[in-house]
Amino acid sequence: MRIPITLAVALLALAATADASAQDAFNIDEAVSIALEGNRSLARAKIDREAASRALSLAWNDLVPSLSVGASASASDGRGSVGGSATASLSLSAESLHARSQAELAYVTAELAYETARRDVELSVRTAFYALLLKQEKIRLAEQNAATARKSYEQAEARRKAGVAPELDALSALVRLEKLGPALESARMDYETSLDSFRQLLGLEPGAPVTLTGSLDASPVAVRAAAAVDPAAAAVSSPSVRTMERSKASAEASLAKARRAVYSPSLSLSASYRPSRTDASLSGSGSLSASVSLGLDDMLPWSDARLAVASAEDAVAKIDSQLAEASAKAVSGAASLQRTIAQAAKSLETGRLSESLAARTYALTEEAYRFGTKDLLSLQSAQDSLAEARVSVSESAYALIVALLNLEYALGEPFGSLGRD
Fold it and tell me: Which residue segment(s) compose the domain that 67 sits in?
């Protein structure tokens, strides 16, 4: 059977559209993967890490001697001479001997900065993803409210035409319906604005089609796991504490360097050879020298070197204080997140009960309004209560998910680990 060309082209276009839609839709883990590849700030942190790695691989170059060569020629009274020179020198000091350890410390610091930036990006992506799902849910609820308001208006108009309700009821229902239009449009605009920021976070082009797949559901297992966590673990694993520990290591290295600059001698090695040729004769001379020096002025209490040591000691002491403060804040922050999670879980449970009650109340009120035993004001009040209950449930679910993500971040745990059985 032959397929008409126009039909074949249409089928191919439909298949391409379906494939594009499938590619544009991604879940939370896929969004994180895209961001880790395309986020621009993370790419800069990666460049810094690679630069530190390159510097570490070349840290030995301070131990390579300096080499130089030269040549000369002269002529006098019909006689000529040609000469040359080759010199190698090497200077070793406390600073040059510790170049590699400093490069290693710089690399570890850059590696930690990259991992912290990576965690920050992932936390931002996950939080923004669920924030978009919340905005989507609010749009859906706004659309439901508009549909319910239209239904109420149609009922009021039918009752007015039947002569069993005043014209004011129909007019009130119409005004209520019209007011919901701008609110729905505002919710859609808010979503699009947040979606633009989300594209930038993922490193996508402006206006790139994005479809999110997921739900605002937090596992009860995650809530129980969060309650069982020891907040003291944050004193070791918190990103802020780890960064401060790396700063302390850097300050201690600077202190050690400053102390060795005072008490460590400098060693200089030099070797040279100068060959020369005069007419038919070849001769040469060489030398080898070594010297050790120690600056006595640096040992004086008022010297710049001793002042540098004192400043380095002060820096270490201040970082010790900051580290203790960061550890205490990390522990209290983790404990606060535990309380937030427990409160959000309770609010979500209560909100779902309130939603069920509001939905039942609205259904009964709507039925009573049809039979004329309830007025329009009672029906509208029931609608408002149901809408508020639904929004409250979505917001509580979002707050619970974000609190769980922040606790995992504070503990240095992989995201989603608290929700695994």
Answer: 23-419
Positive or negative, the Cα torsion across 134, 138, 144, 145? Answer: positive
Please state the separation of Cα 334 from the chain's center in Å. 19
Q: How far is it, in rounded angstroms, from Cα 91 to Cα 355?
A: 79
Position 350 confidence tier, pLDDT thresholds 50, 70, 90: very high
61-74: average pLDDT: 69
Instruction: Answer yes or no: is 137 within a domain.
Output: yes
- Give domain status of residue 134, yes or no: yes
CA 282/CA 275 separation, integer angstroms? 8
Confidence grade of residue 123 (pLDDT, cut at 50, 70, 90): very high
Please name the residue that has the structure tokens 């319906």.
Answer: 177
The three state secondary structure string of 84-103 is EEEEEEEEECHHHHCHHHHH
DSSP structure class, residue 204: P
How many other CB atoms are found less than 10 A from the CB of residue 200?
14
**Residue 298 is assigned to a structural domain of this protein:** yes
Contact assessment for residue 110 and residue 52, using Cβ atoms and an 8 Å cutoff? yes
Where is mean pLDDT largest: 145-149, 279-283, 293-297? 145-149
Q: What are phi and psi of 276, to 5 degrees?
A: -145, 150
Examine the pLDDT at 212 and tell me if it is beyond 80: yes
Q: Which amino acid is at 4?
A: P
In whole angstroms, what is the distance from residue 87 CA to residue 288 CA? Answer: 10
Q: d(Cα 373, Cα 366) in Å, to the nearest integer? A: 10
Specify if 6 maps to a domain: no
Closest CA to 218 of 351, 408, 396: 396
CATH number at residue 178: 1.20.1600.10
Q: Cα torsion at 318, 319, 323, 325 (round to 10°)?
A: 30
Tokens, residue 326: 């960061």
266-278: strand order across its sheet? 66-76, 79-92, 266-278, 281-293
| Tally of structural domains, the chain | 1
Token couple for 217: 């559901």
